[in-house]
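Propose amino acids for all 195 sites.
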């Protein structure tokens, strides 16, 4: 049913990148990897652009932007060292990576590595590095947060004793996890906070 709906939408809006992502996710959840590849080829062939997920954090009046796996930031080495420390601390607190939303036909270790480098985790690591102990950390995203990042952020808040605010630019696909406290500000942002 979802496949039929997605294909109908693509007939009406062949340039809508979100529909291709949805269709790819549907096929991946069903383990239909050949179909995932077919949709990706279709995206490339049609020149459709997918908006990359990114996270922004303001520090000392300057905005810092991160995308998944980003190593272009001037503090990249420090950030990844902090990520390693966070990973160890989170595992001690009971964290296990949730790779259910990874849509690539790769081994579990590679899936864990993929979720480990999501943009919000990089932004939070930067915030932990550059803000005083106990200070709140505010991150704004352009896309929803995956379940792994939601679970990790809850634990990071507890482990590091920080209040974490994750603002998500609202659109028709934005949803809030049930166990996050939600505050809606205006029409365009949804903030989740963890304390």
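Proposal:
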């Amino acid at each position: 049913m979802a496949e039929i709906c997605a294909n109908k939408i693509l007939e009406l809006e062949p340039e809508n990148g979100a529909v291709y992502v949805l269709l790819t996710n549907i096929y991946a959840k069903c383990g239909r990897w050949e179909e995932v590849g077919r949709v990706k080829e279709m995206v490339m062939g049609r020149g459709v652009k997918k908006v990359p997920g990114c996270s922004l954090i303001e520090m000392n009046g300057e905005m810092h932007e991160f995308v998944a796996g980003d190593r272009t930031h001037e503090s990249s080495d420090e950030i990844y060292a902090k990520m390693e420390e966070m990973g160890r601390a989170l595992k001690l607190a009971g964290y296990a990576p949730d790779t259910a939303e990874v849509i690539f036909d790769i081994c579990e270790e590679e899936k864990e590595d993929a979720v480990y480098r999501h943009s919000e985790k990089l932004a939070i690591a930067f915030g932990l590095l550059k803000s005083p102990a106990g200070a709140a950390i505010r991150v704004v995203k352009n896309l929803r947060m995956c379940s792994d990042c939601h679970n990790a952020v809850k634990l990071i808040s507890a482990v590091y004793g920080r209040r974490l605010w994750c603002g998500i630019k609202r659109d028709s696909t934005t949803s809030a996890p049930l166990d996050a406290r939600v505050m809606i500000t205006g029409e365009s942002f949804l903030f989740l906070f963890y304390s």
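The beta strands are 54-59, 62-67, 137-141, 164-169, 181-185, 189-194. The chain has two domains: 2-46, 54-194.
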